[in-house]
Design brief:
Length: 106
Amino acid sequence: MLGKKQPHTPRSRVKSALRQLSLRSRERAAAIKRDGNTCCTCGKKGSNKKGGIVKTTVHHKNGVKWDKIIQFIYEELLVDPDLLEVLCVECHKKGHDIEKAEPPSK
């Protein structure tokens, strides 16, 4: 028997979704194209040729602060259900149009 559903989206699921976004990003593709899919350290070119497979990956020079990113997602996007409401698309758009027209609060 399956246990009770967790009250929030698990951190592992959030990280997995963010990782998939990163793997399919234009920024990652641009880095691969810029470097010619070639290792910047040893110069090996990525290849799928039979008998000569060389895998490359994209490395974040400044690292990825996963905990900080995931915490931000929980604070701004995956909030308590009491802070969420269901709206039709038209009312949702109107609400955001009103927010854009109001000066930012200080």
